[in-house]
Design a protein that fits this description.
The structure holds 2 protein chains of 2 kinds. Chain A is mainly β. Chain A has no helices and 9 strands. By secondary structure, chain B is mainly β. The model of chain B has no long low-confidence stretch (mean pLDDT 95). The chains are: A mainly beta, B mainly beta.
Chain lengths: 108, 116
């Protein structure tokens, strides 16, 4: 079973800053990884799929990279509305669709 | 526009069966793949299982065979049943539509508490 470990657990940054969140898989998963944003009281929103693809409507300041076991989500210039918990998810149907434990991002 | 709405009892007795329905509009349950995901209070996301348009189902093995997902094509909805529930099954339950092996569209979630 693949385990996804996210880091850091929490961080606090200011608007305009650049941030990189990490997700590490316990075994090789090619590029089968997604990132979600979840704000309080809301359902998760898909930000990135297949490691680096953005669905229609996701702002360009969100980008994803990585392959194999190490992945990153970058927000190029933080906006106040980016305050949320971010989850990574394994997207391969040969294994359970595991989620990482989440990274809480606070915008000061 | 794809909309999903969960419904079902908000309170379930321990050892009972949790039954939820996800009503779908803007898409056909016969065309796409669908899933259930839950989130215990203050915790992260857990995939429970998926039903594919092929009719195949897959479940999270951590649930020990207690879960079943089915589609009612005539009503354009799909359902979750979780058997032999305990307090650990208390959570916000989401239904979602797949895009490839990811979850593109989500309902707003329905809160289920397991308690006497």
């Amino acid at each position: 079973e693949v385990v996804l470990t996210q880091s850091p657990d929490t961080l606090s940054l200011s608007p305009g800053e650049r941030v990189t969140l990490s997700c590490r898989a316990s075994q090789f998963i090619s590029r089968y990884l997604a990132w979600y944003q979840q704000k309080p009281g809301q359902a998760p929103r898909l930000l990135i799929y297949d490691a680096s693809n953005r669905p229609t409507g996701i702002p360009a300041r969100f980008s994803g990279s990585g392959s194999g076991t190490d992945f990153t989500l970058t927000i190029s210039s933080l906006e106040p509305e980016d305050s949320a918990v971010y989850y990574c998810q394994l997207g391969s149907n040969w294994a359970p669709y595991a989620f990482g434990q989440g990274t809480k991002l606070e915008i000061k | 526009q794809v909309l999903l709405e969960e419904s079902g009892p908000g309170l379930v007795q321990p050892s009972g069966t949790l039954s939820l329905t996800c009503s779908v509009s803007g898409a056909s349950t016969t065309t796409y793949d669908w899933a259930w995901v839950r989130q215990p209070p203050g915790k992260g996301l857990e995939w429970l299982g998926s039903v594919y348009f092929s009719g195949e189902t897959k479940y999270n093995s951590s649930l020990g065979g207690r879960v079943a997902i089915s589609i009612d094509m005539s009503k354009n909805h799909f359902s979750l049943r979780l058997y032999s529930v305990t307090a650990a099954d208390t959570a916000l339950y989401y239904c979602a539509r797949h895009y490839k092996d990811y979850f593109m569209y989500w309902g707003q979630g329905t809160r289920v508490t397991v308690s006497p």
